[in-house]
């Protein structure tokens, strides 16, 4: 029940169709997908949702994908929420929950977006899909495209880590390693999409992808509303890591839509978390000013974004939720990796657990009260970045095959 696309800068409206950004405002003019909520409301009731498949397609009326369009068959979404009392005590809040989006098919929240991107490429009749990325967006696109037999072309910068390239190649994507920066890889991808008529799954600016990410917000709202966790209420706060800003913008939009359908009452406030070495959105939030590009120096590679593309929408949504933006040093992110795994049993990559690190910092600063209830979204699995995991977790004990050697260590 997708009605139009509206430019978030100038307000120009575009009919549903194959658009990337506003024709007048250029790449700044991100298009927001609008729906006829009055038409969706009588259809998407809690009773109807209870009968639907447990994937993110359960919210089809709130996605820009027509019923009947071919979609990747992989199981995306409806990821679990766990309560983690030990971790709650360590970060200093009354109750803490984790939503583990590392459990998606290619192990990150990006599958929610790539599945919608691939469905749109098929709907628009493209013979191939492309993106420029080193990380989860690329591996997710490669996996989703492989599942429907759509060729994928991925542009990676020269410094892209070998394990991530291996994942792309394994899914059969054609990988172009561009001798240049990420920006150059991004531009080359855009030009190639125009020349060869490939669909551009460009994370920051494609209007449809963020709608896929939105389903994490819809799920959070539905899981708490229908679950016993907080007697049908939503948590006071939701913490999410921020790179380009699409994820937090999308999740917040999803939460608001659930309320708009009359299905939730009070909504959570959002905590957006960036790494201190790449925190231009935190700076813009604090200064109440436009974004100034920053450096991008952090081990959390998935959020190492100095020139985010969706900052306007991220800031608007965080403000609308009376939320906060916070930056954390890499040492805090490594610490969050350890405690989330050891006290919660969930192993996230650095960007995956940055929300936990930011929550802890927000409690220390008094932004989040000690009696608060909080959900942190774990956006990516820890096996994605083994180097950081080894750095966070340390080394094993090297021993002789001798019980006395074991005893010496156990008794220490
Ligand atoms: C694991 C993980 N967490 C968080 C993010 C941040 O999302 P966004 O760039 O939409 O702000 C990303 C995006 O690359 C990611 O891969
Ligand atoms: Zn515009």
Question: How are the strands ordered across the major sheet?
Answer: 4-5-13-10-11-12
Number of strands: 13
Summarize the biggest pleated sheet: 6 strands, mixed
Straight-line N-to-C gap:
64 Å
Quick check: average pLDDT?
95
Sum up the overall morphology in one term: globular
- The share of residues in helices is 40-55%
* Secondary structural class: alpha/beta
Poorly predicted regions: none
> Which radius of gyration do the C-alpha atoms yield?
21 Å
Tally of alpha and pi helices: 15
Give me the strand/helix succession. Answer: EEEHHEHEHEHEHEHEHEHEHHEHHEHH
Question: What hetero molecules are bound to the protein chains?
Answer: pyridoxal-5'-phosphate, zinc ion
Strand content: 15-25%
Notes on the structure:
The protein is of the alpha/beta class and about 400 residues long. It is built from 15 helices and 13 strands. Strands 4-5-13-10-11-12 form a six-stranded mixed sheet, with helices on both faces. It has a four-stranded parallel sheet with strand order 8-7-6-9, sandwiched between helices. Helix 4 packs across helix 8. The structure holds pyridoxal-5'-phosphate and zinc ion. The site of zinc ion has 8 residues, from loops.
């Amino acid at each position: 029940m997708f009605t139009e696309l509206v430019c978030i800068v100038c307000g120009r409206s575009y009919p549903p169709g194959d658009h990337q950004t506003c024709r007048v405002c250029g790449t700044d003019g991100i298009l927001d997908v609008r729906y006829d909520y009055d038409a969706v409301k009588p259809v998407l009731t809690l009773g109807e949702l209870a009968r639907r498949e447990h994937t993110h397609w359960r919210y089809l009326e709130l996605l820009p994908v027509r019923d009947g369009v071919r979609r990747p068959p992989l199981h995306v979404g409806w990821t679990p929420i766990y309560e983690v009392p030990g971790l709650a005590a360590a970060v200093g809040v009354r109750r803490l929950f984790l939503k583990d989006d590392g459990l998606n098919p290619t192990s990150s929240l990006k599958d929610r977006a790539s599945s919608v991107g691939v469905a749109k490429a098929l709907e628009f009749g493209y013979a191939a899909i492309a993106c420029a990325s080193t990380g989860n967006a690329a591996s997710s696109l490669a996996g989703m495209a492989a599942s429907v037999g759509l060729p994928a072309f991925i542009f990676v910068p020269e410094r892209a880590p070998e394990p991530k390239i291996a994942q792309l190649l394994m899914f059969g994507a054609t990988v172009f390693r561009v001798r240049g920066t990420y920006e150059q890889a991004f531009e080359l991808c855009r030009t190639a999409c125009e020349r060869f008529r490939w669909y551009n799954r460009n994370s920051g600016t494609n209007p449809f992808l963020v709608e896929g990410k939105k389903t994490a917000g819809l799920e959070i709202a539905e899981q708490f509303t229908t679950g016993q966790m907080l007697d049908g209420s939503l948590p006071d706060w939701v913490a999410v890591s921020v790179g380009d800003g699409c994820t937090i913008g999308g999740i917040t939009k999803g939460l608001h839509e659930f309320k708009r359908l009359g299905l939730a009452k009070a909504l959570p406030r959002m905590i957006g978390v960036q790494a201190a070495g790449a925190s231009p959105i935190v700076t813009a939030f604090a200064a109440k000013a436009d974004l100034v590009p920053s450096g991008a120096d952090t081990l959390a590679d998935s959020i190492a974004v100095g020139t985010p593309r969706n900052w306007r929408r991220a800031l608007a949504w965080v403000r609308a939720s009376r939320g906060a933006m916070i930056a954390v040093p890499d040492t805090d992110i490594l610490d969050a990796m350890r405690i989330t795994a050891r006290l919660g049993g969930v192993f996230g990559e650095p960007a995956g657990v940055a929300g936990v690190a930011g929550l802890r910092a927000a409690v220390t600063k008094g932004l989040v009260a000690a009696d608060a209830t909080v959900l942190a979204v774990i956006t990516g699995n820890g096996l994605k970045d083994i180097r950081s995991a080894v750095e966070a977790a340390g080394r094993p004990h090297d021993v002789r095959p001798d019980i006395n050697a074991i005893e010496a260590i156990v008794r220490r």
